[in-house]
Amino acid sequence: MSSSAGFRFSRPYEDDIPDGWTLPEGSTKRGAKAFKKHCAQCHSIYPDGRVPFAGAAAWGPTMWQVCNRTAGAVIITGNAHISKYLKDSGVVWTDANLMRYMKNPRAFTESPVQMNFAGINDVQMRVDICHYLHTLCPEHPDGRAIMAATETTPLPTLKEFGAALGLAGRAASPPAA
Ligand code: HEC
Fold first, then answer.
1. Does residue 129 sit within a domain?
2. Residues linked to residue 70 through DSSP beta bridges, in sequence order
3. What does pTM read for this prediction?
4. Ligand 1: distance of its center to the CA of 60 in Å?
């Protein structure tokens, strides 16, 4: 998506991802934490789009297999919402585009995309989230664990959800010190 002149959004947007950019090193563990903080309240990580913890809602599509998916292509699960802005955008969720989108969803898509999200400036945090998103697929062992949990349990418990996010022991009550 060109980030040229003409968008009318008040927040200034500087595309910090040059063409030909490839994902540098990062941490799936840090990415999982950042995802939990910034994304999990609106996005499922499960193939069936479930939202297994209180306070979360499937406002957006599941992030299961989001990498290299075409925007708006996911089968809508639950109440997940996807607007024509994303469907018509033609964006493919490469790492570079995910980086740009996470920085400023509306500026990047040049549309009033319905993701009510301030954006993350920190490059490394976005890189880490990309690394985490790469685990959400059947090719990754963590992804296979998520698939197994989806198949075997009607709904994972909060603890299992935390474990799937790499936060075992934190989502549930912490062990006595
Ligand atoms: C306040 C809720 C909310 C938060 C927080 C949020 N999103 Fe979203 N997201 C949405 C909604 C709603 C959409 C659909 C927007 C539309 O269709 O206009 C969406 C769409 C997306 C899409 C496009 C999916 C597709 O299939 O095309 C991606 C990728 C995405 N979000 C990633 C993220 C990431 C990564 C984070 C955390 C850094 C995040 N979102 C935080 C609500 C949210």
1. yes
2. 92
3. 0.83
4. 5
CATH number at residue 142: 1.10.760.10
How far does the centroid of ligand 1 lie from the alpha carbon of residue 61, in Å?
Answer: 7
| The total number of structural domains that make up the chain | 1
Two structure tokens written together for 143: 């992804």
Residues contacting ligand 1 via CB (< 6 Å): 38-39, 41-43, 59-61, 66, 69, 71-72, 74, 81-83, 85-86, 93, 98, 101-102, 113-117, 120, 129
CA nearest ligand 1 atom 37, residue: 39
Task: Please identify every stretch of the chain with a pLDDT value under 70, giving residue numbers as ranges.
Answer: 1-13, 52-57, 75-80, 154-177
Whether 131 and 27 have beta carbons less than 8 Å apart is answered as yes
Residue 75 inside a domain? The answer is yes
What is the rounded distance in angstroms from the CA atom of residue 148 to the CA atom of residue 54? 22
Report the helix count and the strand count for the chain, using DSSP H and E: 7, 0
Closest Cα to residue 48, out of 166, 156, 150? 150
Q: What are phi and psi of 8, to 5 degrees?
A: -110, 35
